[in-house]
Amino acid sequence: MKERQDKRSIVGFRDRCRRAGLKVTPQRELVYRTLMETDAHPSAEWVYGRVRESMPNISFDTVNRTLLTLSGIGAAFIVEGSGESRRFDGNLASHQHFKCVRCKRILDFHYEPFDNIAVPEEVRKRFELLRTTVYLEGICDRCRAAKGPSEKTSSNTTNINPQ
After folding, report:
1. Apex 100 CA angle, 94 and 106, nearest 5
2. If I label 121, which of 23, 31, 72, 143 is the partner at 20 to 30 A Cα–Cα?
3. What is the C-alpha separation between 162 and 111, in angstroms, rounded?
4. Which positions ≥6 away from 51 have C-beta within 8 Å?
5. CA angle, corner 75, sides to 71 and 76, nearest 5?
6. Quick check: helix, strand or coil at residue 83?
7. Which residues neighbour 36 within 8 Å (Cβ) at sequence distance 6 or greater?
8. Helix, strand, or coil (residue 97)
9. Whole-prediction pTM
10. pLDDT tens for residues 70-105?
11. How far is CA 150 from each of CA 45, 94, 100, 143, rounded to the nearest angstrom?
12. Strands (DSSP E) along the chain, which ranges?
């Protein structure tokens, strides 16, 4: 099943490139495959390290520009954050993000009411809305569990299971 999804994903990627007038180069395809193989929301530096294992002569600039291109053609998303390295997401399904402010892990979750956030009419009139996202920050389950019993904070948060 995973292999069939991967093939469909690559076919979809190639179609997106062609519709955008881009050549499907080995570099683009390898960067795309590398991004699709992880749910870690990697930085360009992380993707570069992985891509170099298979293509040692590729430059960081090529990887970074390719990730930005993937975002520009809708084959990936940039996970906006707060003052850190840009992170990328190859998961195009509807979902939201939670970032741990301690370990910096970014987790996917899906909460259906967030899919249809009401956007004020004033915003819709002024701007062409392309995408809405929900991005939450806090302390993840691992970091909370790592705290000593006296350090645990009381919490009124809803437990949202990552995908």
Report:
1. 35
2. 72
3. 10
4. 27, 30, 31, 34, 58, 63
5. 55
6. coil
7. 6, 9, 90
8. strand
9. 0.74
10. 999 999 999 976 567 889 999 888 899 999 999 999
11. 37, 38, 20, 14
12. 77-79, 87-89, 96-100, 106-109, 135-138
